[in-house]
Amino acid sequence: MPQGRLKPLTIRAPGLFGLNTQEQLGLLDPLFATVANNLVFDDNDRMAARKGWSKTTSSQIESGADITVLHMYERDKDTQILISVCNNKIWSGTSTLTEQTGTAGASNNWKFINFESQVIAVSQGRTPVFWDGGAGTDFANVTATTGSVPTGDDGVAAYGRLWILDADRLTLKVSGLQDKTKWATADDSAIVDLAEYFPAVDFAQAIAAFNNLIVVFGLHSILIFTGVHAPVTQLALNDVILGIGCIARDSIQDIGDDLIFLDSTGLRSLVRSIELKTQPLQDLTINVRNELLTDIDNTTKTLIKSVYNPDDGFYLITLPATTRHVEYYIDLRRKNPDNSARIFKWNSIELNCMAYDIVSNTLHVGKEGVVGKYDTYTDLDPTDSFSTTSYIAEYKSSWSDFKSEILKVLKRANLVTIGGSEYQVTFNWAFDFSDIEYTTSFVVPVSTQARYNISRYNTHRYSGTNTDINNNTIELTHAGQFAQVGWKAAIDGDAFAIQSISMFAKTGRLATSGDRW
User: Fold this and answer.
1) What is the reported pLDDT for 281?
2) pLDDT at 422
3) In sequence order, what E strands does 310-405 have?
4) Closest by CA position to 28, among listed 15, 9, 10, 42
5) What residues have CB less than 8 Å from 306, skipping those under 6 apart?
6) In the chain, at which end, N or C, are there fewer CB atoms within 10 A of the end residue's CB?
7) Beta bridge partners of 429
8) What's residue 461's pLDDT?
9) Residues of the chain with pLDDT under 70
């Protein structure tokens, strides 16, 4: 029996570096997680349970068919209208969804573009349509007064013009200044033959505006154009990035000083360096690469959607894979020391699409025939008349010897938790890379203070002076050199975060094989 006094083994900020499944069977920094489901980082950088969602639509439309697209139409400084697509029709509203399809052709994959107080919608092979948000009006075809309208499935409004791909994915059409009807080069419009610029056989997948540039994403390369304020005479290729492209139109998000997009190898960051005039790229998802690529391969690319939440500082991408539906949460406020992104997975909320309202700081979500919003700490179960349901938040650490080759006999653990009044938390631990796992559980004490103000998604914003910090002590058993610990809890109406995990062990001789007992 090893002898010696109890030695503390502490993970002061569990999960601080996010999820790492790429090296989960090796020795990682103990601040990495190897399992991290339904978690976020709060503003104090604690690992915390995500929020859930609640429906804002009073009743389902189209017999509960999937809402496949959400868009926040900003008509003017005082008017924001949520647009959704369901069952090949276009709708507006949140509490009551009103059909606005008009002359729009049948499509579940419209891309919406805010332009000159109107909203334009494009879809592959379809005539673009527009709506001015007026009562009693619906979407109507965009009619060209000169030239012909493009019929591709992506575009952007930038620098006073519409920039829309044509259906051949090799032509970029630029409208007249502040005029959606002019598409002829002789009438202050521009037509760009992208085949002249792609370095090899490629086709345009998406387009974005960024830092006085137009960025055209091919499948295998990226074209960057300058001269955007006078496209007829000054548009010119500024740079070409080879070997990287975009595989999902709706993965692109402008996060202010960067663009995030999904390449065939994972999520990428396009950063422009003004001094060097180059566009270095960064792989954001290197720590979950294999798992992410498996989910991508099993997902129809047109169903991939994303959103950027600037208030809470995260990018969220939803992958409705055929074998499982998962969201990847990317924290954008802080990077790891190796410049990798901090990532968690959401494995039970199953969002179809998302849109963020910057005016009300509301993250809208699309579900089965309803619009909802990301709030509260419960989900809704669409199979049970939209009754509330709990969801499981879960974490496992990496394997660690805590910088000691000495055998460790675990005696007890202390978890500092925030919130989670009356939650039953299951604590688990294992030794030496074994799949044999030991578990125990504890109940977080009843809160005697004010409940949370949950207008934000995290656990640190409280009503009054409530901190609701609890020290939870549990007894442990068994021994080994390398240890892995974790916890899971059913989140059901109360915010919950873990501040630290401390274990106390007897230590003695050097560990040898077969010491687990």
Assistant:
1) 64
2) 93
3) 314-320, 325-331, 342-346, 353-357, 362-366, 371-375, 379-381, 387-389, 391-397
4) 15
5) 250, 251, 252, 253, 260, 262, 315, 316, 317, 318, 354
6) N
7) 438, 485
8) 40
9) 1-4, 272-281, 382-386, 448-467, 508-517
